[in-house]
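Open question from group meeting: does this chain pack into something compact, or does most of it stay loose? Before anyone orders reagents, we agreed to write out a predicted structure and look at it together. Recording both the input and the output here so the notebook holds the full record.
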Amino acid sequence: MRIAIAGLLVSLAGLAHAADCGPDKLGTARTITLKREAALYGATQHAPLPLQKNEIVLTFDDGPQPETTPLVLKALADQCARATFFMVGTNLEKSPELARRVVAEGHSAGVHSQTHQHLSTMSAQEQLADLRQVQAAYRTVFGKDTPAYRFPYLEETPTMLAALKDAGITVMSIDLGINDWLPEDTTEILVERLVKSLDTTGGGILLMHDVNVPTAKALPSLLKLLKQRGYSVVHLEWN
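Structure tokens returned:
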């Protein structure tokens, strides 16, 4: 009951905040609802999502992290933008209430392995065990099966691709990123990288990391840049 009430309070707070979503905000232009199936998306490795020109999908990897994910959520809420979070199983287990808060605030969640190791260095049995563990962690936290998976380091393996296909789980790669995993990065550096990526790709699935302190600090500026450049946010959900 306590969790349900907490989720309701977060949802009501989100509805109140939605009243402030005027034309000066980045906003969320539309939602694509994907089937729960073994699809593969992300032009870096697979087919692109059905996006229009200057549309962008915000995605975050590696969380939830109590020190940084709340800052990311605040920046997204301030701009009325929704994102997809690919969560690591061990962090799901450590911070289940924060993970549920992410979804309660209107974002979607997939998984990003249990331990974020290089899967290619693991045996087939170890890879499958890692998948089972993160599936169980997701099910425990959210009460349903994960709809989507992003490979650690985007390093796909035949063993995992086959297992995800059998499970009907979407593989979500990327179209662009900002290489935001260095602790010495600054907001100016990350903004510059985003500009270069947008100039190269014109939009698509954007990879960021909600566990990275510089990213959490820079996100308000990154979202404002997207607004200034005329980009529209597309949110992903699964039926």
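Observations to bring back to the group:
The longest helix spans residues 124-142.
Confidence is low (pLDDT under 50) at residues 1-19.
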